Structure formats: C-alpha cells, structure tokens
Amino acid sequence: MLCHFQIMDFPAHFRPATVLLSPKVKSKWDLLTEMVNAAASAWELSAELKAESQRSLVAREESVSTGMEAGIAVPHAAVAGLPKMIIGMAIIPAGMEFESLDGQPSKVVVMILVPKSEKLAHLQTLTEVARRLSDSNFRQSLLDASTGDQVVGLWS
Q1: Hey, CA dihedral for 110, 115, 118, 119, is it positive or negative?
Q2: Is the separation of the CB atoms in 73 and 109 below 8 Å?
Q3: What pLDDT score does 88 carry?
Q4: Which pLDDT does position 33 carry in this prediction?
Q5: What's the structural domain count of the chain?
Q6: Is residue 1 part of a domain?
Q7: How far is residue 105's CA from residue 12's CA, in Å, rounded to a whole number?
Q8: Rounded CA gap, 4 and 29, in Å?
Q9: To pair with 35 at 20 to 30 A between CA atoms, which of 50, 62, 89, 131?
C-alpha cells in the first residue's frame, strides 16, 4: 500500500485549534482527553471516532509511556476508521509528569493519530517529530509561542 502522507505535509494534518497552550489539567490522562477533544472538534470527528481515538491512545500509553527525554512526549495511536492523520500538540512550560525515560517532566507533547491502514505514515511522522524535537532551539521556539498559529507555523 502506498502512503499518502508526505513529511512536508505535516501542517496539513495539524491545525491551530489542536494546539493546547498551558492546558489546565492535572495528569497526562486528563491531557490526552483534552487533546483528543480538541482534535475531534477541529476535525469534526464523529462521537464514535472520538471515542475510538481516546481508547486507542490510552491503550497505547498504558502499554508503555510515550514520554521521551528532554521534556518531550509523543503519545500516538493507530485508530480504526480514522479518515486521515491528525496531529495535536500541548505546550506545557511548567512541565507535566509523563513517565519519561529521563524522569523529567514533559513540556512539549505531540499527539499523533493515524488511520490503522497508514502504518508507514505513522513511522515517518514519529521519525520526523523526533528529528525536529531533538533541536533544543526548535523546542524553545515552541515553548515561547503564544498562539496555536505560531506553533503550527514553526512546523511549516
């Protein structure tokens, strides 16, 4: 199967309305719920797809934390019935416990939801996100952003 996703199309799967700036949540589980809610609203997902996205994301996170190092977490899941890849983001300057590899709180959280049929896009996107977030200047620019438009623009 050919993958329809191009790395350069990252912004096509990412909307300012899916960016949460300093969200008022108490746990990573609450954060995941808010991120799915934002994505469902921005992309007009059905209630069934929203619920399936939430279930898939939580199941993936329960199996092994997606907290990485350097203040990064990349929760991701393959979702049955999802029509296209959806990317959301949370910027948490104070950080949030995410069971990260280095034990540090996560400040930049990138959520990736992909159709189950788009496995190659899933891997390509994870690779691109990790590559971009490995740049400390890029991470700082994300933390300094004050609007969802600015965050999306940084990925362009």
Answers
A1: positive
A2: yes
A3: 95
A4: 97
A5: 1
A6: no
A7: 29
A8: 30
A9: 131
- What is each CA distance from 85 to 3, 41, 42, 92, in whole angstroms? 11, 15, 13, 23
* Residue (of 115, 141, 145, 112) closest to 10 by Cα position: 112
Closest CA relative to residue 74, chosen from 63, 84, 93, 87: 87
Indicate which CATH number applies to the domain containing 67: 3.40.930.10
Q: What is the pTM of this model?
A: 0.90
Which residue range forms the structural domain that includes residue 53? 9-155
Closest listed residue to residue 17, CA positions, set 51, 53, 43, 49: 43
94 in any annotated domain:
yes
Residue 7 is classified by DSSP as G
Type of residue numbered 52: E
pLDDT tens digits in sequence order for the chain, 156 residues long: 333 334 446 778 889 999 999 999 999 999 999 999 999 999 999 999 999 999 999 999 999 888 888 999 999 999 999 999 999 999 999 999 998 889 899 999 999 999 988 877 767 788 888 888 999 999 999 999 999 999 999 988
Tokens of 31: 């954060």
Both tokens of 62, joined, read: 């329960």
